[in-house]
Amino acid sequence: MDKNIPHLKEPDFLSNILKPIEPEPSGPSIWNKLYDNLAANPIFAGGAGLAAIGVGLTFAKRFGVIANTQLRRYCVRSLELTNENPAYPWVMSHINLHSKFKANSLFLDSRLEFSESGHARMNHFFTPGTGVHYFNYRGKFVKLERNREKSLIHKDGVRKPFETVTLTTYGIFGRSKPAEFWHSFLASATQEGLSTLKTGLVVYQAIGPEWKRLGNPRKKRPLESVILEGNTLENLFDDVVEFLASEQWYTDRGIPYRRGYLFYGPPGTGKSSFISALAGRLGYSICMLSLSERTLDDLRLNYLINNMPPKSFLLLEDVDAAFAPRDPETPTQQKMYEGLSRVTLSGLLNALDGVASSEERLIFMTTNYKDRLDSALIRPGRVDVQHYFGYCTPEMIQLLFMRFYYPKKVEDIDPKQALAIKQKELLELAKNFSNAVLSLKKNISPAQIQKHLINYKDDTQAAIESVEEIK
Ligand SMILES: Nc1ncnc2c1ncn2[C@@H]1O[C@H](COP(=O)(O)OP(=O)(O)OP(=O)(O)O)[C@@H](O)[C@H]1O
């Protein structure tokens, strides 16, 4: 305020109006008072306490649910299956078989099997009984809960109680896919179950325009029982497996999805044995066709090759026998082939090339005389892999010997004698046998060795000492 301006006295009524508002004397607000009153009220305080506890519990429960869900997502893996599932018995026996602790209460599942000859056999399977069982399966803790319901199901022609099994395992699975653990578990159980199924090798023969099963399925020959030089067996096997896994690759490039193999070499060197064992291992059947069959003509050949049962190999044995060479060495040679077959080379080539490109086709041809084959038949595209099956090498002779005399079961070995000692002994004998065979200075086929060893199947020493009998 300017000091030179005379100070005007405010009239009294104004001073009353302009009187500054004095702050209320501090004390409990209305809300505080309300709160105090309510808090002092024992009925209300009790109710509020209960409500607070209720809210707290609701939150705790919610939190528990969330925590439980998260825990289950990261640490628990469950699998439920019923006895309507075909894999059910395999899963049950697999877990019992591969667990550190076995179930104490067992369920017996017996199956009666009749062979075609009428021979009967009873197979018993033990699975964990009803209730809860705990296992240590390959380092993982697994809880198995088997429940039996009152309702019945029809299975294998009999009425059985409906059952459910829940398998639960615990661990830190993190964000891994929920079913990952059970996928690998099921893969092992299924593989084991399938291996117990006795499926034989089905061989088809061409009867008229159709493929007909040739007798009953044959016993599958283990692939390892065919002894080939070096890594031949593994390489050929890998080649076929790779082809079977490459359908998309062929489709993408518009290449007919087929592969041809030519196995050539002297008789008795394992060409047919390898093809049968390979088909058995891969779960394929074999369609056998003889080109020199008198009733086979180009038309029928074409139809048969293009209408094979699924998952089967085409086997053309002694493929040289059907056609005369384009340039016969002698007129007699030309005559030899005349009238032998009604199938012509061009008919065969057409049939092979005509195979529907989208269909998987594996064609195996065998011959003892590769040089007699027309080059058109074995050109790439028709024959993609050629392999020579030769006479025995020293290593093959040893392996044939070892395989022949190797104890079938570990129980066959004297318990006091370690397997390693037995193997070492056998290896020594195999070397002696191989040296004896080599001293003959002749080409010997695996079939000849096999025949000789069969003659001395119980006497390794005699087999070595009588090698000159090998013819
Ligand atoms: N490499 C081998 N390993 C194991 N056994 C073999 C082998 N080669 C031949 N054999 C045995 O010899 C017999 C005849 O073999 P296989 O029919 O496979 O010979 P192949 O080469 O197909 O003969 P061919 O050319 O006459 O048709 C079979 O019983 C088989 O067990």
TrEMBL record:
UniProt keyword terms in alphabetical order: ATP-binding, Hydrolase, Membrane, Mitochondrion, Mitochondrion inner membrane, Nucleotide-binding, Transmembrane, Transmembrane helix
Catalyses which reaction(s): ATP + H2O = ADP + phosphate + H(+)
InterPro entries on file: AAA+_ATPase (IPR003593), AAA_lid_BCS1 (IPR057495), ATPase_AAA_core (IPR003959), ATPase_AAA_CS (IPR003960), BCS1_N (IPR014851), Mitochondrial_chaperone_BCS1 (IPR050747), P-loop_NTPase (IPR027417)
Domain AAA+ ATPase: 257-393
CDD domains xref list: RecA-like_BCS1
UniProt-annotated location(s): Mitochondrion inner membrane
Main location: mitochondrion
Domain of life: Eukaryota
Membrane association type: Single-pass membrane protein
Gene Ontology CC entries for this record: mitochondrial inner membrane
GO molecular function annotation: ATP binding; ATP hydrolysis activity
BCS1 N-terminal domain residues: 51-226
GO BP: any one term: mitochondrial respiratory chain complex III assembly
Membrane-crossing residue ranges in chain numbering: none
Family per record: Belongs to the AAA ATPase family. BCS1 subfamily.
Protein name: Mitochondrial chaperone BCS1
Organism: Acrobeloides nanus
